[in-house]
Here is the input.
Amino acid sequence: MKLGKTYFYIIGGLTLFIYIILVMSGKNALQAFTGALSLSFVIYTLVWFLFDKWFWKRHVILSLCGIENFSGKWSGTLHSSYGSGVEKKTKVDISQTFSRIVITTKTDEIESVSFLAKWEKSMINKKKEIFYMYRTDPKGEHNDKNPVQYGAARIRFDDEQKTRLRIEYWTNRETVGYMLLNKV
Here is the structure.
């Protein structure tokens, strides 16, 4: 609801501003209003597209919004409680814009993709984290040993340079684990 109101106020303010300029330039009221409304939507859409894809990554905006840029390709080791404990090489791809985050994880046996992700600020150390839910699909030959499962995870930087990630996860098969990853 809050985002809808913000969108409404931005479009309304832009429309009013452009309407006043068009009326002052000699357009009649109806032409000015329709022109202002159309131009407002075009301007807002263009600015939002540019912001959502690129501008949000600027340090000033990240600080103001209280988020981190986790996007990129990561590689490392997955440590699982499955059986007597398992270690696997893993690759994680984090595709991130200001409005959307998709986390894909791959090992030799599975591929998982997030379907829900949310920003949080740790109440303990005030660091920015992503919490997400995912579905894991096994590769064909591993269906019996590693069936489809759902889980939740938390991502945070593991170092001050932001070149290492730590992902802790929990699954509906009552396994837990973590991944230690380096930026590729």
